[in-house]
């Protein structure tokens, strides 16, 4: 895989993760067991904002890309760990999207 | 008040409102009566994002300023109405910041 | 096409447009005829920010979706008109992505 | 200075820096010596986006605050160095706001 493909894959994984986080966020706010989802809701938003920055930074070839990818890995790992505790479909889908995004960012850092 | 002062006042009101929305959001997520605050939490985030766009659009003199101010008024009015239903200090402070931001945007629209 | 598919298509068109705007923005800043691209660069950024808000608002089913789609149409039309004046490949690609996003938002408004 | 004051000061410095970056960005795009300001324009936008994230992360007490402050210092230092090369008033004002924001973030990291 060349560098352009790597970027493209990482942009897509970040935007997919932002999407999953936003869906998990708004779905969690409607759940009956809301009180158990406080941290999930909070991390969904933080992770969505950081994935958004990561995707746009790659699109614009930001000079701070390495540090933004590291931050994105941190947020995705935390959100995946939290969402992974819950049985809701939106939580499982979000945890998976977070893990994939973190993995793709890690591969970027090796190459970049 | 000249147009520059009007802009400056409206930027400040938008950023104050974003701040109040973010504080109300994170504080609401910790409250005991969380289930009553679902809509408050949701509107806090929407309103914070829109106030952020409004402030930055004024700072950059966006060609879409009129429509963005109208959107900001809509979001602030909705968030003020919802936060106004709750007795928490962060909700009251948020409702007040939203009302002030909406008023300042309305004055902008008269002049702009 | 059902409403979910409509949302999904509109989210994708917004994110594609944000991507094209960011690429056009950073590519324009490197061009020799930079002075002719001032308005293009400026609109790329405004349009990217608004497409970002539109995509995330659809993902979170924002109560202000109608007004945000109208704003997105306005920004995309303006950016498409400006990018359409230039011969650079990134400008042509951006104009096309903007037009597609505006069309998809218009279809959303009919259904929503 | 207690931790709340430290946060408040750092939020204000980040928002002032975002403001100065946005003004410098839109003013630079109008300048006659546009070609010399390419990197300035580019860094203004990156720095504004990162200061925005930093301010909102502090307002929401993000779990990734330390890493976001480190990223903010990096962006502010780079933007201050670039803007410091130019004689325009908006560049000087931006360089000063960037330096102040970086300093305030550094103090946050000592305490946090």
Automatic annotation (TrEMBL), chains A, B, C, D:
Q: What is the protein name stated in its UniProt record? A: Ferredoxin
Q: In which domain of life is the source organism classified? A: Bacteria
Which positions carry the signal peptide feature in this UniProt record?
none
Q: Name one Pfam family in it.
A: Csp
Name the species this protein comes from: Paenibacillus pini JCM 16418
